[in-house]
Amino acid sequence: MALSDLLRRLVLLAAVIWTAMTLNFILPRITGRNPIIEKLMDSADSGGANEYDFDQFVAAMNARFGFDRPILHQYLDYLGDLVTFDLGYSIANFPTRVGDLIASALPWTIGLMLTSTLIAFVLGSILGALTVWFRSSRLLGFFVPVIMVLAAMPFYLVGLVLIYVFSSLLGWFPASGGFVETRTVTSGWDFYLDVAYHAVLPGLSIVLASTGVWALSMRGMMVTVQGEDYMTFADAKGLNLRRVFLAYGVRNAILPQVTMLALFMGQVVTGAVLVEVVFAYPGIGFLLLRSIQINDFTTIYGVVFILILTIGFSMLIMDLIYPLLDPRTRKSRA
Amino acid sequence: MAGGLVVSDLAVHFPTERGVVRAVDGISFDVERGTRLGFVGESGSGKTTTALAIMRMIKAPGRIVAGSIRLDDADLVQMSDAEVRAIRLRRIAYIPQGAMNSLNPVLPIGRQIADGVIDHLGPQRDADLKALVAESLDRVGLAPTVAAMFPHELSGGMKQRVCIAIGIVLKPDVIVADEPTSALDVITQRRVMDTLGRVQEAIGASLILIGHDMGLMAQFVDELVVMKDGRIVERGAIRGVFQAPEHAYTKMLISSVPDITEGRSFLGTIPTPAEPKPATGAAPSPLVAFRNVSKVYGRDFFGRGGVHALRPLSFELDAGRSAIVSVVGQSGSGKTTLANILLGITRPTTGDVRFEGKSVAGLRGTAALAFRRGVQAIFQDPYGAFNPFYKVDHTLALPLRRFGIATSRRDIYVCMEHACDAVGLDPHLILGRYTHELSGGQRQRLQVARALMLNPKLIVADEPVSMVDASLRATILKSLYDLKARHGISIAYITHDLATAYHVSDYVIVLHHGHVAEAGTPRDVIGNPQHPYTQLLIDSIPWPDPDRHWGSRQSVEDDQRRLEEIAASHQTIVRSRIPGFDLDTAA
Amino acid sequence: MSTATDDRREVTSFDADDHQRPSEPEWGTLRSRWRATLRYMRRNPSLPVGLALLSALILFSVIGGLLVDIGDTRVMSAPHSRAPADNLWFGSDRQGRDLFAVMVHGTWLTVRVGLIAGAVGIVFGASLGFIAGYFGGWIDNIVNWTVDVLLTVPAMLFLVVIATNVSTPTEPLSSTTMAIIIAALAWRRPTRQIRAQVLVMRTAGYVQTARISGASNLEIIFLEMIPNLLPYLVASFVTAVSAAVLASVGLEAMGLGPQNEPTLGQTIYWMIQSSAFMMGLWWWILPPIIALVILFVSLYLINVGIDELSNPRLRRKA
Questions:
Q1: How does strand B358-359 pair with strand B324-328?
Q2: What is the CATH number of domain A108-293?
Q3: Model-level pTM?
Q4: Which domain holds residue C182?
Q5: Count of pairs with CB atoms under 8 A, one residue in A, one in B
């Protein structure tokens, strides 16, 4: 990748992160309300927090936001904190730090999202390519409407249908949670099996819905690629059909798919967040839902910030990987 | 006759909603080992379909409905798909048309040569493959290091030679070359055709060349087949066909290629020029003046770097006389940039364009409208020039309203009718139709009509005939010439084709890398070129005359080096001047 | 004679001989070829099927609206957790809402959110896309960068932050406010898509012809470009509606929706929070899911249909 291109990506990433940070800072000030203060007043009224905790918390909050200082000062300190990943304390669960809450939830989300997205990407791309390959069985053609319906549906709707069928009706899989919480053992085979068992439905809903998306875009790309001159020439060379399909067709059609994967990172993340909500899966999405329900604003902002960061960096990684796949974006030797 | 190809009664049909199209309608021919057979014809003549049929690559729903294609004793038509695939490349190789996109962009060249070998001969030792790839590249004059490169690192000519290298790696008996140079400029074309010819001779294969360029055929093939509407209308040895064409269609094809010879114009009888418009006032300002106009694309934020599409250029075109000034150059020469600056579509990076003494950049209101009306255009793609959403009337009526030439519906219609008549189109067949309902020639003439209707002072014609069939070329150029001769309109004729420029223009400017290489009257510049670039261009034109030699082998080898030297020299040779057009080379 | 040759050109367009293959999509031909379009639709049913599904959904809401009172969507308007019966067609939920009334109003409310946000998005996005793509320069740079940055962040995350700042427990969001919040971000994708189209179209032959015919920029945009972009604008609008519905349901599932209005997403939120699955209340679970599936699939099919109309390459293959 050309250096200027890399620079552009980095600046873009920085701009994205800055936007995310600033949004959290500015919105409460624009709307003229500060939900954090409101929450504090609320807690104080109801006496939910004990006296000692509360004083310490107010002190911590004042130190964090420095409400009495000039706005620019507040802003710079706020940016400084975020850059060092200091997300502050949870309002609802003081003195738990937001960072710790997120740290315990993030592995669940990443595990679920990464696995199911990778499976869906590979499966969808192959399926999509096969639906337009002339040697494919005609049976595959009947898949196309199914793929289209799945592609049109958001992840969580598929999740709801799966819960209804496999949990509510058939009782094969649990409808919620990431593991059986009553179990004391938190490691070893049994635990992992249990985790995998709980992950089947949420994972499947992401896989099903996004397989449709990848299959459809791959289908479109293969149609385009099949019209390319190099496919005609490959045919004229009398190459093995398997080689024509894989090394000439799929190999070229997959490139825009990878670009799309980077662009759709955001959709994948929000989709996964909502799947967690539907399944009460102990990841970052469910943390967000719980925080919203108890008005834990610092945690909400922290989660949003971390998610945006994740999306930004995964896009950057995809952009860095891309030149390995496409020689045209590597530095030319000529 | 080992290794020869015999085609008999071949018919290829394409069922469509409007009935069966007989793309190839019962043709027979044969080609002997070691000889070259040319197929020539216009769009839709069935020549490419014939090539694809020989490869058994007709795409459904089209199919071969009758006939046989025999290679030795085997009939390709009767073979299974797997059998045909085994024949391809090993016995019949195909050199594709779109060299630019015929190579897999993500595989290195070496792999693309080797994969065919592996798939036909089975797995090979790495060293053997490498040697085979190197040998194949060497045959087409490319270094072994090219094997490690990717297509995007190669020039167009190199890509086409790689395609040839792929085609000949298994030393086939027959090579089918489908317009192998249609996307290349003439200089590269000569080089590629020279390579193809030599390789074919070296491996002793027979060659079928599909093309539309009679000149290329005259220079390259032994025997020629002329196709029209799916049938063969004439066939014979190349000399015979050119010296004594029998079919009227062949005669037309030959005569539609402009030749650069004194006294014979392919435009036919040329009307005597109209009286020059009387000059008004004592010293009228020139119609169009360029003062150090240049264009640089892709400059960075600080105005550094970038590609110089057009180097500083100054000229004056007089208002009093009408002239056709040709701007000749290959792609990337800056000729289209020049055209767009003339039209006011592109803004120059430096310099000043003046129209009737006033700077175009500062024109507002009625002055801007006067400039718009005064400088009209005929674009290369006649299909794209008309908005597909509307009937063609919309495109014709718009300028009439905007320039206040006609306002009532009645007047507008009369204007449009007159314009159609003037270019020989029947208004009743043209007006009220959509673009896609017209033929290419009709669309292009309609563009001329549109420009003419506005009574402009200058018409910029950007490659007006490069997208129309040879048979229509002369007609359209003639109507362009009429604009000058009958209506006194000056024309900037932008083209890559020196031969047509020779016939229509009063003055020729040869552009190379945005720089004027040579300028003067066509008789000087094209008839007797002095600049090495112009000489190279003229040498590279395939003349429609089998007896006229197409450059020596030595010169072909040196082309690339010479081109680089020429580009670096920035030399301008002005051969002659004509009244009415003044090229300023002081800058 | 000329017509004969051009007929030939049309039908032989499969032939690689034809160098003059038109590069423009042939939308313009539609106007004059209604019958061909109908024949085409039979071959390629995405558009009619999508339109039929969407109409059915809206009809259900409109006709249902005549039969029920909006008051029945309130809590305790019916006995709770009842299965469908003669007087309670869709049954009731655990809080005692009449689910038929909920579906009738909820469907329309959700579609309305999509329409409002989609319309704002397409109008604003198309204007911005045209300004950026047509005039270029620094405006284009700014627009392009802003869209790039904003598109990286999923709308949902922005919306969560905005919604938490706007709604309070005492004063929950209305569905209209939610639509406006969503609209604040709905312009991003249309802007990018339309800018890209305008960039290509700006150099089209007919645009240049119009320019040298003395047409003004506005005339070029509105008379020459927009008619050819119409299918594209419609497709873009449909996508924007779909994205807005997606975002609204997402917000509602996160508990940030209009607590007092029975939109489809809000119904799903209550259903999850009240353990409808564990209790097996299928009449509560299925209708909102089915309605949303129909909504998303129909919008998607309409989009595919328009896309296939305007993209001949896909058309040939399909």
A1: unpaired
A2: 1.10.3720.10
A3: 0.82
A4: 47-314
A5: 85
